[in-house]
Amino acid sequence: MRRETRNDALWKFGSYIFLLTITALVLIPIYWMLVAATIPQSEFFSWPPRLLPGLHYLQNFQALQESVDFIRSIGNSLIIAVSYTALSLVLCSMAGFAFAKYEFRFKEPLFYAILATLVLPIQLLIIPLFLLITQIGWTNSYLAVILPWAANPLGIFLMRQNMKAIPDALLESARMDGATEFQLYYKIALPTMIPSLSALAIILFLNQWQAFLYPLIVLQEEKMFTIPIALAQLVGQQRVNFDQVMVATSLAIIPIFLMFIFLQQYFIKGILSGSVKQ
Amino acid sequence: MATIDITKLRKEFGDEGEQIVAVEDLDLTIEDGEFMVFVGPSGCGKTTTLRCVAGLEDVSSGSIEFDGVDVTDQRARERNVAMVFQNYALYPHMTVRKNIGFPLRLSTKQSSDEIDERVEEIATLLGIESLLDDKPKELSGGQQQRVALGRAIIRDPEVFLMDEPLSNLDAKLRSVMRTELQELQQELDVTTAYVTHDQVEAMAMGDRIAILNEGRLQQVGDANEVYRSPTNEFVAGFIGSPSINLVTAEVDGDTLVGPGNFEYVLDDVSWVDGRSRVRVGVRPEDMHLVEDGAGSMPSEVTVVEHMGNENFLYARMGEVDLTARVPSKMRPPEGSRVRFDFDEEDLYLFDVDTQESVKTKTGETDVGYEQYVHNSV
Ligand SMILES: Nc1ncnc2c1ncn2[C@@H]1O[C@H](COP(=O)(O)OP(=O)(O)O)[C@@H](O)[C@H]1O
Ligand SMILES: [Mg+2]
């Protein structure tokens, strides 16, 4: 017994050392970003490097706002990422529910076809998509960015896998209680899937938040720029405005950060427990 | 409330080629307000039958009528049927209050105040009013069971279906809930179809019992009928615990001769007219120990189980295992040789090939209680 406890303690100690190292490795660049956002560009390459933040944040931000309308970009990014995430959650959960809980013709081939699209590189789709978007006249619109990727194959896959865990008896019981098929989805499937929906929301939001190549092609007017495109404007041929880039990125990570903190309370394990007695 | 008419119900699973016939040509009427228990071994089609009545399963052929209205093609939610599932199937994300009120919120135009009032009424009836704000996972098995019941009765269904609702409870709670369920059913007077694999439960609860085997209905009748007058060997073997003892015997004039020197002389030979062999059945409770030299079943005791109020004797007669229930003071040592006998009125005979009943219990029932009945209100 004693020996085992001692081993456990050692193991725990080792794990903490390991985790702390990883955390430090992740945090150092973020810390440097924050420091660099608060000092003038001239001090950026000074040696030894600055370790403490300076007082130049607001000046840097003003410079950024003069180079490119960054506040507007944040707005654009928020509108696009939020509506994309919402729409995609609806579509993925509906498709996942159907694939997990209904029988229909060509179900298997259809599902594998959707999975197969995961291996298509985005570069392959960009040209045809661009042509399509131009033809229907959607260039420089939010819809052009949101719609083509809304039915996310990874999301459909994740929702299907998770929804398979909903006991059939639960759905049948709701049917007996008088629920329509849509009510099954809306009143039973969705609420029990909140943990997976939260996880998926973060993935989707993050994907859209940092999307660069495709938005760059369909959004050509500056007033439509998203954050990654705005950032790209700061990188000139001769000169990179590091101070402005760092201010911009320090702002860009805030929504992701908030979203994670807000949603993590829903990653509670075992929300399905206690539904059916095993 | 409704009368349920099931006509030629058939349900197959699987594709062409490798079909499983889960229910085969089932004809049955469940009377208005009746408590009908479906019983049979695992896989005999009880659940499938219930699910067809519920509308959760499409039938392959045949029809189901509620009060003369054909509901065969109606969906579950159009049928006004409530069901209690074996594992309760409570909605995990809703409180007990929400769980019980769920059917009403879906199916009626009642205001949420009215619904809440009704939920509390039901909860009081079931003794769970203090749990209304708990989530299902915080409840014990028996409490979950009550919530499931509450959810089923709240909208006054025409038909009440239950699939082994007590099988997840421990023995003690099971017998408590058994009585409660019966009382509830009588009070609500709802036509009920109840599935169990436990024949004791079936006998105890059912107004009538429907015994199924391999997808086919074997017999329908009240507890007394299926116990005393089983239609065939399967029913005789399934009903009663411990099971009936069965022996194949040759008919020699008025005597039945079987393995291990089994010999039984019939008073009434007409039972075996024209038969050379017959299956003989005797229930354990009808076997009694007799003195040496008498009796028809000479056997060797292998195991004695002391139940307190009685003893189970397991014995071998030639190649055949026998079980007998004897008074608790009779405990012959294991390995000893004993002789059993039984009365002819308690004898069952079955056809060797078809397994249909030839003779079942013939003794009188309802004898000699008049002197104990006091009609003083
Ligand atoms: N969904 C299904 N698909 C295929 N076979 C099934 C299905 N449901 C039941 N069966 C088969 O039908 C038969 C009867 O099953 P069931 O009604 O569940 O029996 P019981 O409830 O009496 O134990 C069994 O052989 C079972 O394997
Ligand atoms: Mg079953």
UniProtKB/TrEMBL annotation, chain A:
UniProt domain ABC transmembrane type-1: residue ranges: 74-263
A GO biological-process term: transmembrane transport
Transmembrane found in the keyword field: yes
GO cellular component, one term: plasma membrane
UniProt subcellular location: Cell membrane
Domain of life according to the entry: Archaea
Positions of transmembrane segments: 16-39, 78-99, 111-133, 139-159, 184-206, 245-268
Main location: membrane
Keyword annotations from UniProtKB, A to Z: Cell membrane, Membrane, Transmembrane, Transmembrane helix, Transport
Topology of the protein relative to the lipid bilayer: Multi-pass membrane protein
SUPFAM superfamilies from the UniProt entry: MetI-like (SSF161098)
PROSITE patterns, per the entry: ABC_TM1 (PS50928)
Similarity field: Belongs to the binding-protein-dependent transport system permease family.
Protein name: Binding-protein-dependent transport systems inner membrane component
From TrEMBL, chain B:
Pfam family, one: ABC_tran
Membrane topology note: Peripheral membrane protein
Keyword match ATP-binding: yes
Span of domain ABC transporter: 1-239
Catalytic activity reported: L-arabinose(out) + ATP + H2O = L-arabinose(in) + ADP + phosphate + H(+); D-xylose(out) + ATP + H2O = D-xylose(in) + ADP + phosphate + H(+)
PROSITE patterns attached to this UniProt entry: ABC_TRANSPORTER_1 (PS00211), ABC_TRANSPORTER_2 (PS50893)
Gene Ontology cellular-component annotations: ATP-binding cassette (ABC) transporter complex, substrate-binding subunit-containing
Classification via InterPro entries: AAA+_ATPase, ABC_transporter-like_ATP-bd, ABC_transporter-like_CS, ABC_transpr_MalK-like, ABC_transpr_MalK/UgpC-like, Mo/tungstate-bd_C_term_dom, NA-bd_OB-fold, P-loop_NTPase
EC number: 7.5.2.13
GO process annotations (BP): carbohydrate transport
CDD domains, sorted: ABC_MalK_N
UniProt subcellular location: Cell membrane
Enzyme class (EC, first level): translocase
GO molecular function per UniProt: ABC-type transporter activity; ATP binding; ATP hydrolysis activity
Swiss-Prot/TrEMBL keywords: ATP-binding, Cell membrane, Membrane, Nucleotide-binding, Translocase, Transport
Described purpose of this protein according to its UniProt entry: Part of the ABC transporter complex XacGHIJK involved in the uptake of xylose and arabinose. Responsible for energy coupling to the transport system.
Family: Belongs to the ABC transporter superfamily. Carbohydrate uptake transporter-1 (CUT1) (TC 3.A.1.1) family.
Quaternary structure and partners: The complex is composed of two ATP-binding proteins (XacJ and XacK), two transmembrane proteins (XacH and XacI) and a solute-binding protein (XacG).
Protein's UniProt name: ABC-type D-xylose/L-arabinose transporter
Organism of origin: Halogeometricum pallidum JCM 14848
